[in-house]
Amino acid sequence: MAEESDQEKTEEASPRRLEKAREEGDVPRSRELATFCVLLAATLGFWIYGNAMIAQLKHMLYKSLSFERIQVMDPSRLAIDLSQQLFDLLLVFAPFVGLILLAALGSPMLIGGWLFNSKALGPNFNKLNPIQGIANMFSSNSLVELLKAIGKTLLVASVAWGVMRSHVDDIFALVSEALILACTHQGQLLLACFTAMVFAFALIALIDAPYQMYHYSKKLMMTRQDLRDEAKESDGNPEIKAKIRAQQREMSRRRMMAAVPSADVVITNPSHYAVALKYPESANHAPLVIAKGMNEVAAKIKQIATENNIVLMEAPPLARALYHHAELDEEIPTTLYTAVAQVLAYVFQLRTWKKTGGLAPMIPDFVPVPADMDPLNSEKR
Predict the structure, then answer these.
(1) pLDDT reported for residue 67
(2) Checking phi first, is residue 358 left (phi over 0); if not, alpha (psi -120 to 50) or beta?
């Protein structure tokens, strides 16, 4: 049962899955919404600019049918006039076409956003697979598209029929009107019918756009196994990362053990903690922690220190404080300066005594450690 649930697409698409789909040119699109935007722009263009455009076209037609004798006798003049008329015609339609072009370019921003992908321009031989083509013909998506096309046709046809039926008297009255007035009324009726159909397309777009978003999200849904595989690809295999971290810890431990022979003193708990300190006399620095560890690591530090004649000093509170509050290869905390100074003073006196002899130094019987620095006191609280 667990394996079956891992193979079911029950999880929402991850950001990486969405990004990958977009890189491949797969984004949600609603053709009905784009069609509505273009038709709406055309309708607004007719309402706003229609009268001026018709007036300019009438003027151009009148001007093209009115010419002088010299224009007929001079072919070069005819070519110049024709090119000028074509230019004027472009100027007449430029605002209308520009508005439609703006709608066509802006409609993708409503759903999916702009996208240019060179992969979509390349050949895809999978689309030439006849078996896949037949399967797509009888898929649920094809059925939805068929029902949508039928519904769209019926809705637009019904709206157009309703508008024309409501103006049936005006339509029959056109035959009794003067030619110019009849043409004006006919244009108004056609524009009203076109506007009604555009609002019908608005209803279709409001239904299609959410459906396309739903269909897109459902198509990109993932199984739990997909999520795990993606996490391995993006973040790396957890087992490999654990092995890398283990190797890094081992390398760090080896470097730390290699630094123990250069220590001035190893402060112990005596059995649980061991911290190796080095005081760089040539530099103006506080003592450095060059190695520290607990239990087995602490035992290894003490073994190496013994083999290299490094002083071992038992100071349990100081060892615990240094282990928990001092970072490796960094200076000791300022609050422990006094305690460490007493230890180092004893170590240096011990070295002098071994070289020159005389009275042996006394091991400090008390090393002052602030109560808040000893984790044992914190646990008791």
Answers:
(1) 67
(2) left
Which residues are within 8 A (CB) of 342 and not within 5 positions of it... i.e. 6 or more apart?
364, 367, 368
Torsions phi, psi for 27 (to 5 deg): -135, 155
Distance CA 289, CA 322 (A): 8
Provide the phi-psi class of 46: left if phi over 0, else alpha when psi is between -120 and 50, else beta: alpha
How far apart, in whole angstroms, are the C-alpha atoms of residue 232 and residue 243?
15
- Burial label for 319, CB within 10 Å (0-12, 13-18, 19+), is buried
CA dihedral (325, 329, 330, 335) positive or negative: positive
Q: CA 275 to CA 326: how far, in whole Å? A: 10
Distance CA 363, CA 340 (A): 13
pLDDT band at residue 379 under the 50/70/90 scheme: low
Determine the straight-line distance between the first and last CA of the chain, rounded to whole angstroms.
50
User: Does the pLDDT of residue 306 top 80, yes or no?
Assistant: yes
- Residues 180 and 184: their CA atoms lie apart, in Å, by 6
| Range from 127-141, 170-184, 272-286 carrying the lowest mean pLDDT | 127-141
* pLDDT of 381 higher than 60: no
- Residue 326: half-sphere exposure toward Cβ, Cα within 13 Å: 30
Cα 236 from Cα 139, distance rounded (Å): 37
In single-letter form, the type of residue at position 66 comes to S
- Rounded to 5 degrees, what are φ and ψ at 116? -120, 120
- CA distance linking residue 265 with residue 51, whole number of Å: 99
Tokens 């990004």 locate to 19
**Can you tell me whether residue 200 is helix, strand or coil?**
helix
Tokens of 33: 């919404």
Helix (H) or strand (E) holding 375: helix 375-380
pTM above 0.70, yes or no: no
Sign of CA dihedral 70, 73, 75, 81: positive
Specify the residue for token string 């006094």.
Answer: 338
pLDDT tens track for 30-59: 888 888 888 888 888 888 887 788 788 888
Mean per-residue pLDDT, 144-170: 83
One-letter amino acid at 351 equals: R
The helix or strand, by DSSP H or E, that contains position 168, with its residue range, turns out to be: helix 168-173
Of the candidates 263, 264, 274, which has an alpha carbon nearest to the alpha carbon of residue 349?
264
Are 247 and 34 spatial neighbours (Cβ–Cβ below 8 Å)? Answer: no
